[in-house]
Fold each of these.
Amino acid sequence: MKKALYGLGLLVLTMAMAPVVGACAQPTATPEVVQATIPEVVLTAADYSFTSPASIAGGLTRVRLTNSGAESHHAQFLRLNESVTVDQFTTTLQSALQAIPTEGEAALGRIFAVVTFEGGPATTLAGQQGEAVVDLKAGQYVLVCFAPDATGVPHLAKGMVQPLTVAAAPATRPPEPTVKATVDLNNFAFTGFPAMSTGKTTLKLMNKGTEPHEMGVVRLKGITAAQFLEILSAPPGGEAPSGPPPFEDAGGFQAMMPGETGWAVLDLTPGEYALICFVPSPANEFKPHVALGMFYPFTVK
Ligand SMILES: [Cu+2]
C-alpha cells in the first residue's frame, strides 16, 4: 500500500437478463425485460484531492476513477468501524503518519484498528481512467490514496481523504460481472491468475486469507521480475537511481478484507508484468505481503 504501484483499466460491464419465451407463446401483458446493470459512481483524483458524490447506494457498484492530476492515484475504500467518526479517523491517521519515523510500518496498525478495507480501483496513471467493481456494505467510508509523492509522502497526508456515505443497497441486486477467471488472494500468494491477452479483461478476486489483500498490477519496463523484486527490497535511504522508474502502474484492485470479493478490470498491452500486494502484515512485523511471497510475474502477448 505504501509503495502503491497499482492501476486499473476501463471497461463496460453490461448484463441483460432476457426471459426465454417459446416462439408460440402468447405475449404476456407486461413482458418487462429486466435490463439490470451495475450502478456506477464516478470519482476524480487530482493532486491532492478527490471529487466524489457525498452519498451513494451500497451493493454492487462500478467505480470509475478519472485521474486528472500529474501523479498516479488510486481510490481505496475504507469503511469506518462501528462508532468511529471521520474526525476520529483523521486523528488516528495523523498519529499513525507521525509515528512512522519512530515505529516504522507498525505505526500503520493504528489505522487497521479503526477501519475495514473495502477495495477500489488501484493506482491509475496521470490522465488515465481506472475501474473496479466493489460490493459495498452500508456505512461511513473515507476514500484515501496511499500513493507516495516524489518525496515519499503518502497522498492521504496531503489531503487525499474524502468522506463518503454509503446507504443501503437497492432492493434488486444486479448480476455480477462476467469474468475471465477467479483469482484467489491468499496468505501470501496469488492463485488462479489466468493466461492474459491484450484488451479489457474482468477478473473476480476473492480474499481467501486472514489479512486484507490487494492485487496491484505493475508493468515492467526493460527489467526482469527478479530485478523488480530487488528494487522493492532495497533498504530505504539509499541513493535514488537516476531516470524514470523501470516500471509503471497497470491496474488492479485495492485492499479488501478476508472473505470479501471484488472485481478488477484490467486493460493490458503486450509486455512483462507482475501482480503485487503491499498490504503490511500485522502477524509478520508489518512487512509488506510482497516480502512474504505475494508476487506473481506474468507475460501479456
Ligand atoms: Cu496481501
Note: The chain has one domain: 40-233+245-300.
Amino acid sequence: MKIIVLLVLFPCLIFIDSINAQSNGAKLFTSKCTACHTIGGGNLVGPDLANIQNIRSEEWITNFIKSPQKVIDSGDSAAVALLNEFKIVMPDQPLSNTEIKSIIDYIATNSPDKNNPNQKTPNQIFNASLATNSDVIKGKEIFEGETKLKNGGPSCIACHNVDNANVFTGGLLAKDLTLAFSRLSAAGIDGILRNPPFPAMIDAFANAPLTDDEISALLAFFYYSNNAGMLQTSTLQNQSDLLVSLIIGLDIFIVFLLIMWKRVKKRSVNFFNN
Ligand code: HEC
Ligand code: HEC
C-alpha cells in the first residue's frame, strides 16, 4: 500500500521539480544577486557577470559563490584582484551546487552576444518583476493583430493560439503558446522572434523584423498567459475555498434562524400566557 503511494508520488514530485528547475536560475538570480550584479548592464556593488561562464571555471564560480572569503584567503589571485577592485567582500551565498549551476545557466543564456554587443540582452528587454499590466495588454494587442507590427509582419494569432479568457481563439497551424514562457524562457522566445528557426516564421518575419519594444511586450504577454495557465489549479482551489465558506456561512445562518425561531416561539408562548 505504502509502496503504491510512493510510486504515485514520486513521478509527481519529479514533474513538479522539472517545472521548477527551468525558472529556478532566473528566480535565484533575481532574488539573491540583482542587488549587486547585472548581466551586461555594467558594474554595481559587484562586477557585471556577463559571460562569466567563459571567463572562469564552473568550479571556481561555485566555490566563490559559496564562500568568497575562503577563496580570497586561499590566495587565489583572481579573487584577491576582485577584492582590491570592488573593496568589499561579497557575502557567502548558502546555495547548493545544483542551484549554482542553474544560476550559471541563467547567466549564460542571458549574456549579450560578444559578436553583437549593441543587441539588448533578453534580460534588458524583459524583466518579469518590472513588467506592468499595460505591457501585458500591449503584448496581447500585438499578438492579436489589434496593434499592427511596426515593420509590417503578420499577427501571431494568424498561426498561433494562446488559451486565455481575454484572447480570441487563435490559429491552430502552429504550436499553442499558452505555456511558451515556461517551455522556452524569455531568452528562448526572444531568440526565436529575432532569428526564427521555423520556415513559416522565417517567411513571415525575415523582411519584417520585430522591434525590441514589440518583443518586450510579447514577452510580458507570454509571461502573463503562462502564469494564468499555471494558476488555473489555484483558481479551482479558490473555487473550492469559496464553496467551503459558503457552506460554513449557510450553517451559521441556519443556527441563527434556529435561535431566532426558539426566541419567537418562547415569546409567542409568553404572549399567549399573558
Ligand atoms: C551584497 C552584494 C553582493 C551580492 C548579493 C552578490 N554578490 Fe557577487 N560579488 C559582489 C562583490 C563585491 C564581488 C567582487 C568580489 C569580492 O570582493 O567579493 C562579487 C563577485 C562575484 C563573482 C566573481 C566575478 C568575477 O568577475 O570573477 C561572481 C561569480 C559572483 N559575485 C556571483 C554572485 C551570484 C551568483 C550572486 C547571487 C547568488 C551574488 N554574486 C550575490 C557582491 C555581491
Ligand atoms: C505564418 C504562421 C506564423 C506566424 C504569423 C507566427 N508564427 Fe510562430 N511559429 C510558426 C510555426 C510553423 C512554428 C514552428 C513549430 C510549431 O509551433 O508548429 C512557430 C513557432 C513559434 C514559437 C516556438 C514554439 C515552441 O514552443 O517551440 C514561438 C515562441 C512563436 N512561434 C512565436 C510567435 C510570435 C510571438 C508570433 C507573432 C509575432 C508568431 N510566432 C507568428 C508559425 C507562425
Note: The pocket of heme C (ligand 1) is lined by residues 32-33, 35-37, 45-47, 49, 52, 56, 61, 64-65, 68, 82-83, 86, 88-91, 93, 103 (CB under 6 Å).
Amino acid sequence: MARKAACAEGKREGMATVAPTGGVVDALERYGHGGDWVTARQRFGWSDDQRVLDFSANLNPLGPPPAVTAVLADALRWVARYPDPACRGLRARLARRYGLDAEHLLVTNGGAEGIDLVVAATAPRRVGVIAPSFGEYEEAARKRSIPVIALVARSEDGFVPDPAAVVDAFREADLVFFGRPNNPTGHLFPPGWMRDVLGALWRRGTVTAVDEAFLDFLPDAEKQTVLVQVSDSRPLVVLRSFTKMFAIPGLRLGFAAGPRPLIARMAALQVPWSVGSLAQAVGEALMDETAFVAETRRWLARTRAKLAADLGCVRGVTVFPSAANYLLFRLDLPGATVLDLQEALGRKGILIRSCHTFRGLSAAWGRVAVRTVAENDVLVEAIRTWVATR
Ligand SMILES: Cc1ncc(COP(=O)(O)O)c(C=O)c1O
C-alpha cells in the first residue's frame, strides 16, 4: 500500500529490524504529542531567535487566516466579562451550517475535550480503538481505569482491518473510536466500510465516536462527513476541531455533535466556561472562512503529493498514502531509528514526530506535517543528508 515513487536516486530494498523503543522517558513526546516547543527548546538548547520548522504538529501553514488577529484584537474588550457558558452564538452558527438543532451540538475546549467528554458521558465498561490511532482515545479511558480493547491494524492492509473482525473484536466495548482521517496514518476508512461497521455497532447499541479533526482538509469533506447522520436515534458522536485547519492550537476550540441526551450529559460534565470568549469570537468569524478552506484544500493536494514523492525517494524511507495534512513514513535503515533522526534534525531546528508512542508502531516509524514547499524542501534535504551518513 505504500507509495512507490519514481525516484531519481536508487532505493535500497529490504527491511531492517528496528527495535521498538516505547517507554523512552526523555522523548520529545513525553506529554504524548508533537508540537512540544518547551521540551524541544530545553533539549536542543535553541536560542530565542533560533528559526524552527515544526513538522511534529499537523497545523495548516497557510493559517491562521488574517481574520483571527483582527477578531482577537476586538474581542479583548470582553475579557473582563465571563464568556457565554453555553457558547450560543457559535452553536447557532454551527447548527445552521450543518443543518442540526443546536441541542445536538456542544462547543469544546479543542477536539481533545470532546474525546474526554464522550468517554466521561458514556461511562463505558470498555473502550475500543483501532491502532495505531490518536493516543487521547486510550488516555481518556486509562485515566478512568476503563479497559481498552485495541485492534492493531496492519500497514499491509492499508490500516483498514476486515469489517467483520472489527465488529467481532469490539463486542465487549460500549464506546468505539474511529479517526477519519486517522492519525498518524492519514488513511480514510472507506465510506462502505464505515457504513457496515457503524451500522453493526449501532444495532448493538455501541456508541461510536468518529473523530473528524482533520476531515476539513479533504476536497470532498462535505460529502465524507458523518455529521449528516447525527440524530437522536443513532449512538453516533462526531468530534471536530478548529485547531488544525485554522492553525489555532493556542486558542483551544472544537465541537461535538450527537444525540441530544448524550450531548446534554457531555455538557453537564464540562467544566463551566470551558471555552473562553476569545475562542468563541474567533470560532464565529472562522465560520465565514470558506475561501480560506477551499484554498487550503487546493494547496494541500499538490504540496502533499510533492512531499510524498520527494521523501519517498530518500534511501530507506517508505511513505504511506495520506488523505490528511501529514505523512506517515517508515525508516528501514540498519541500526537507525526515527528517534535518532529526530535528534539529529532537532539540533538543526527541525522537529518531526517519532511514532514510537503509538500502539502498533515502533521507533522505525515517523510522521511529518505537510508545510510550505520551501520548508518541505529543507526537511527532505536534511533527512537525505542524515541518511547519507548512515
Ligand atoms: C486525531 C486528533 N483528534 C483530536 C485532536 C485534538 O485536537 P485539539 O488540538 O483541537 O484538541 C488531535 C490533536 O492532535 C488529533 O490528532
Note: The chain has 14 helices and 13 strands.
Amino acid sequence: MYHYVDTTYKNYSLACKPGCSFCCTQRIFATSIEAYYILDILTEETLNQILSIENYLRPKLTHNQILLSYKEGSEPPLEEFSETLNPCPFLTEENFCRIYERRPLMCRLTASVVSCEKGFAELPPFLFQVSTIALQLVENIDLGGLYGNILDLLKFLHQYRKGLVEEVPNYLLNTIDVDELPILPEEKELKKWVGNLYRTPVKENLTFRDLLQKLREDFRNYEALSFLKEIF
Ligand code: SF4
C-alpha cells in the first residue's frame, strides 16, 4: 500500500524536497498497524522521549467514521485546530525524517505542488481523491485495530508490550471497516488506480484484494485487545 501510494505521488512534480518539514508536526494520525510497524525500529531512548511529550491534537473520529457520517448525510464534529503545532519528534536537527522508510500513510499523502513557504499548500485533485481512498483502505486493513495520534499509539503499544497498561485509553478510537469506496462512475482514472492496486500481487499468490478479503474473514470478530495479546 505504501509503495503503491509513493509510486503514484512520484508521477507528480511536487515542491516537497528533503529537508522541507513544514508539515512535520505532532498532528499525525494513523492506525495501530502503522504504529506497530514503526515501534519495531525505535530505541528505548526514542520511546522514552515520546512518552514525555504531552499536549498534542487527537482525532475525534477515525477517517472511516468521518466518511460514514458524510454518507449518512450528517456533518462530522469539527476536528480540533491549532495555529501552532510542535514539530514531530522524528525530525532530525537537519529536518530529515528519522523513520522515513516506515513513516505513516498520512505523512506520505501530505504534499504540495507549491512550496509551503508561501504559506499554503496545494494538492492536485487526483492526489486528494487517492489520499481519501488510501486512508480508508489502511483503516480497513487494520480491522479490529485502533486509530489516533501516532504518539498516543506508540505510547500505548510500548506500555502494553511492557505490561504497564491493560486497557485501551479512551482517546484511542476503534477502527471501522467501510467497504464501499467513494468513487463516482465517471471517475475512470480513480477506478483504474484502485483496480491496479487490487490486482497487485502481495504474497503467496494473493493479490491485494484477495488479502483484504481474507483479513475481513479472519479478523472480523477481533477487537484491539485480543489482537494485541496475540502479537505481543
Ligand atoms: S514521521 Fe517523518 S515524515 Fe512524518 S511528520 Fe514525522 S518527521 Fe515528518
Note: The pocket of iron/sulfur cluster is lined by residues 24, 28, 88, 90-91, 97, 99, 103, 107 (CB under 6 Å).
